[in-house]
Input
Amino acid sequence: MAVLVIADHDNSVLRDTTNKTITAALAVSPEVDVLVLGEGAEAAAEAAAKIAGVRKVLLAQSPELGRLLAEAVADVVVPLMEGYHALLTPATAAGKNFSPRIAALLDVMQISDVIEVVDANTFVRPIYAGNALETVQSSDTKKVITVRPTTFKAAAEGGSAPVEAISAKPAAAHQAKFVSDEVVKSDRPELSAAKIVVSGGRALGSAEEFHKVMDPLADKLGAAVGASRAAVDAGYAPNDYQVGQTGKVVAPALYIAIGISGAIQHLAGMKDSKTIVAINKDPDAPIFQVADYGLVADYKTAVPELMAELEKV
Output
């Protein structure tokens, strides 16, 4: 039976997490449909239709879906699941919000953070902050799965699937409503999709010092800025900078950790990076256990030296 993928987009641009989730979906079934939920999301739907392997794109639009309210999403998705074996969505903040509600309404167990598809009913996911992997075999007739996109290759372009508009009318009135959002605008790459990430930790000491050190380095490298949970909790960086098990999972080509000791919850969010560089004055910091290159030094000396060398390039 076919599987359904919920697209990840910003109502205009389709994120590559969708392509990666489609790769996982194709390992479950060769029949993959994509559901684009949003408001004014025609461009995202057209982009999804061009992904190789996609059979059909369903487009559902309403103000509630534009904000991906879990109640509105579930109202659209649950009836659609009569025709699908499984539902897959990227393990983003939005996906983690609405997937449990859908699973509960379908009366099935959610399978979270899948990093490998063994077959249509068997999946591999990390546990204990990524220190162990478990293989889950589900006997549920319907599967609700969140996918860790960083572990899958993006599906290529080359498709020509039809786009079909479907009803997005809520099944019932809900108490939940969108109030407001606070978005940090930046010219830098989005953290989850960046090829280079520079992250700062609590050792930087203050919000002023954090931005004084991290922002020029990120701008020079064309990188996104991340932070440890300790730095975020201390108020040095906003919440959407947080990398880790309770933040964003990243796997860039280059990850530079500055003043980060390497707590388990942080390592769970970045240890799949292709190349990891750590700068820390504590030679016993756990970050050095996963780093490809480690520099035992004070960041106040090391970062200016790095910037000076970059200026020569």
